[in-house]
Design goal:
With 118 residues, this protein is mostly beta strands. Helices cover 6% and strands 38% of the residues. It has a single domain, classed as Rieske [2Fe-2S] iron-sulphur domain (Rieske Iron-sulfur Protein, 3-layer Sandwich), CATH 2.102.10.10. The chain is globular, with a radius of gyration of 14 Å. FE2/S2 (inorganic) cluster binds next to loops.
Amino acid sequence: MAGFLKRLFGGGKQGVTVPGGATIEEGTARGVDIGDPLAGGTRVILAKVDGEVFAVDSRCPHAGGQIQTGPLEKDRFVVCPLHRYFFDPRTGHAEGVACAPVKRYRVVTRGDDVEVFV
Ligand code: FES
């Protein structure tokens, strides 16, 4: 029960509003800095798939490359350009390769904005 409540309310994590985050184009990814990445902040990649916005960490779990922004591969995968691994932003799982999943963050849509729990 405690685990369920924790997940329901963002796992105790801070929700950060990204203005206009829900308006990104379908099949694209956009980078957003949550705080200063050079001072403990996080760079998050927002990706819209099937009308829903998902958030993943910008750091690739393979070898630390930076997930790219722009059009999604096959309209649904974010891509790390270093070795061209594809990740499904809905699940975080790598596509077709043995690799740890990319870290995902919970997203709540509020009109044109999204709240990302980092
Ligand atoms: S570092 Fe991202 S695919 Fe290798």
